Amino acid sequence: MRKDLFLEEARLGARNPLLVEYDEAPHLLGTRRRARWYALVDLAHVVMLVEERIVDRARGARLLAGLLEILHLAPDRFPWDPRSGSYLVQIEHYLGQRLGEDVAGHLQTGRSRNDQEGAADRLYLRDRLLDVVGDLLGLLRELTRRAVEHADALMPGYTHLQHAQPWSFGHFLLRHASALERDAQRLVGAYARTNLSALGGAAKAGTSWPVNRRRAAQLLGHDGLVTNSCDAGVFARDHLEEDVAVLALLMSNLGRLATDLYVFHSWEFGFVQVADGLAGTSSIMPQKKNPHALERVKALAGQAIGWLPSVTGCQRGVLSTDLDIAFGDDVVTPALAGQAIGWLPSVTGCQRGVLSTDLDIAFGDDVVTPALDGSVASLRLLTEVLRTLSVDRPRMADRAGAFWSTTSHLADELVRRFDLPFRAAHHVVGRFVRESLAAGHEPTRASGELLAGAAHQITGRDLRLSDTELRAALDARQFLTSRTSEGSVHPRHVVDHAEALGRTLEAHERWHAQRQAEAHRAIAGLEERARALASSEP
Which residues does 244 contact at the CB level (< 8 Å), separation at least 6? Predict the structure, then answer.
């Protein structure tokens, strides 16, 4: 039996301790995290080898028995050797000690570590994406429930952080739900391109062994193959970039929702209150109620900006000395602070070579799991925030019409009554607001005489509304009920939108339940087939 642990012993001799410390050991955490998915990939591969008579039944039975034992060992119970971060090396070494080299050495027949790694990553991501979708659908259900509850909860709307037009808290929630439902669509699409089998690609050129790639895919519950043998391995895993890009966009939308609620939670706004159990206080200021749940989501959303550059930076080749930057657009001259977030990734991404098919990502730290974990954490925190959120409807309604936010409706009324062009009406109302502010008037004290004076200055016409008519046109609640366009802030439209979104969510939930069931069925069938072959049943 071989006494060495590493694959490199025969060709390269002993490993340098520094390489073990700084390359092998750091990978072990990610290897342990994905242990279950590696074990399932190994099971599917060996079941296929036995069924295709590439490995004989006797060896296959012993090998499958060992793999089943590993599958059901908790990661913290497996005797990991800290000198290696490779799952293949760990398992071959373990099985070799228990079953002998003559059995354990057949595990890698017709396979490379490249397609093994690619297969485990795809299986891991497949299952984790389903987790994310499930949690996203839970948040969307909570958003639609609270939107219906607050369909008529009048509140001020903002653009440029200034009063714009009134809307309702329900409409506000559906604005965010709409974007998050598109995230669900994107996750469904990413899932389809992730749930494909990489097994059988081998190192990059395929294998001379008559492996049945479609059978391996079926055993793992994949929808099909990554056909090209080089594409199937770790060399061109653009599904990683797509998955992370979709998660980063999801986090951007979650961050916007969390930030809006964070602002509304401040004393100056006072529109909402997170539950006490989701907040923290100060070590010195006893009055403080800090919305920690929202702050955590905001922080993760900020970090999510770097997820995609982290992955794409490792997906580039490293052998060429030609640089993409010579052929790209100028990314240095633009100098807007907001866009500056993208400057460094834009430059460094072009500083990589383009000829190699080897990917740095195989040697870097795991940058995908933090994206998955961060997304799940944010979804669950926001769902609980929404479920327990207190909404101060009177305070929101009081602020809704406080600063001339309904004047666009007044301009529309002038167009209707006096057949003015809208731009002329816009100018009339703008002058009227200016004169009202100078006079110290609020909308509830709006003066028809001031409006008539502004109209005469702008148009030369005598356009008059009584004080009562004028104040009715400026009423914030009337503004809501005057909206007639589909999807507007009218409470009826908010409820209609929530019901339509609910039907869309039902379709997503059916998809999610079906996909989960298919994955569970496939894995259960794989284990059953492996046990049958391990016990030498036909």
Answer: 307, 308, 310, 311, 367, 368, 371
Q: Write out pLDDT tens, residues 454-495.
A: 999 999 999 999 999 999 999 999 999 999 999 999 999 999
Tell me if the pTM is above 0.85.
yes
The average pLDDT across 50-78 equals: 95
Closest by Cα among 235, 535, 450 to 357: 235
Q: What backbone phi and psi angles, to 5 degrees, belong to 245? A: -60, -45
Residue type, position 461, single letter: R
Give me the residues paired with residue 391 across strands: 272
Residues with Cβ within 8 Å of 78's Cβ and at least 6 positions away in sequence, in order, are: 32, 35, 70, 90, 94
Kindly report each contact of residues 299-304 with a partner whose C-beta sits within 8 Å and lies 24 or more positions away, as own/partner: 300/251, 300/255, 300/374, 300/377, 300/378, 301/251, 301/252, 301/254, 301/255, 301/256, 301/258, 301/378, 302/255, 303/374, 304/247, 304/248, 304/251, 304/252, 304/255, 304/371, 304/374
Among the listed residues 162, 161, 168, the one whose alpha carbon sits nearest the alpha carbon of residue 479:
168
What residues contact 192, with CB distance under 8 A and at least 6 apart?
223
Which of 87, 45, 82 lies closest to 63 in space, CA to CA?
45
From 160, 208, 466, 485, the catalytic residue: 160
For the cut 70, the answer to whether the pLDDT of residue 139 exceeds it is yes
Catalytic residue (choose from 266, 282, 390, 536): 282
282 noted as active-site residue:
yes
Asked if 450 and 404 touch (Cβ cutoff 8 Å), the reply is: no
Which residues touch 181 (CB under 8 Å, ≥6 apart)?
A: 140, 501, 504, 505, 508
Residue 318's SS3 state is coil
Distance CA 79, CA 72 (A): 13
Rounded to an integer, what distance in angstroms lies between the CA atom of residue 86 and that of residue 76? 16
Helix (H, G, I), strand (E, B) or coil at 235: coil
265 and 291 in contact (C-beta within 8 Å)? yes
Measured distance between the N- and C-terminal CA atoms of the chain, rounded to whole angstroms: 31
Cβ atoms of residues 176 and 144 within 8 Å? no
Sign of CA dihedral 75, 79, 82, 87: negative
Nearest to 416 by CA among 469, 457, 454: 469
d(Cα 333, Cα 352) in Å, to the nearest integer?
Answer: 21
